[in-house]
Amino acid sequence: MSTAIDVSVREARPDEREKAVALTVEAYRQYEPGFGPAFWEQYISNIKAQWERTEPTWRLVAEQGDKLVGAALLYPPQEGLYEKLSETIPYPEIRLLGVHPSARSKGVATSLLAECARRAKQGGYSYLGLHTSSRMPDAVRLYLSLGFEREPRYDFFAADQTTVVEAYRLTLTTVQTS
Predict the structure, then answer these.
(1) What is this structure's pTM?
(2) Around Cβ 16, how many Cβ atoms within 10 Å?
(3) How far apart are CA 10 and CA 16, in angstroms?
């Protein structure tokens, strides 16, 4: 997995969490018209809630210079990570990967994904998972290009009851994280 040369990924400091939430909301804003007002507001509330969770989580940010340009959450396997999924996913799961629109196509998402893969592999896991949907075709293309494969066993319906939230996983034994 190649990474951007001028992007550094690290743990978010507690004082950066609000910035990371704002960045993530801005990254997802392009989907607002398709979500509709009620679903969009619920989505923003979910973003904030995920960053405030107390369960073990890596809260990662990507920097270019002194500016935050990306963020992601990485959860170890845990029961109840997705309230609509009764089964526990047995490997780490990326949530809310977001890149500020001004920093897209510069390797920021790939750098965040590489760091997530590195941490999962370091933890002894063979896979790294994430969920997305067909509403986010650019994200799906990126994940597939990096080697993620569908894992429909962990699919579920979003709160709107029409959007399928699709599970993907990356085999870590073949990934290069440097």
Answers:
(1) 0.88
(2) 17
(3) 12
What is the tens place of the pLDDT at every residue in 133-178?
988 889 999 999 999 999 999 999 887 788 899 999 999 975 444 4
H/E element, 9: strand 8-11
What domains lie within the chain, and their CATH numbers? 8-78+86-174 (3.40.630.30)
- For 93, phi then psi, to 5°, come to -130, 130
Kindly give, in sequence order, each residue whose CB lies less than 8 Å from that of residue 34, ignoring residues fewer than 6 positions away: 135
DSSP state of 80: T
Nearest CA to 62 among 92, 96, 28? 96
Q: Where are the beta strands (DSSP E) in 28-172?
A: 58-64, 67-75, 93-99, 127-132, 149-150, 156-157, 164-171
pLDDT of res. 91: 95
CB–CB of 169/135 below 8 Å? no
* Cβ proximity of 108 and 4 under 8 Å: yes
The arithmetic mean of pLDDT across residues 82-95, rounded, is 90
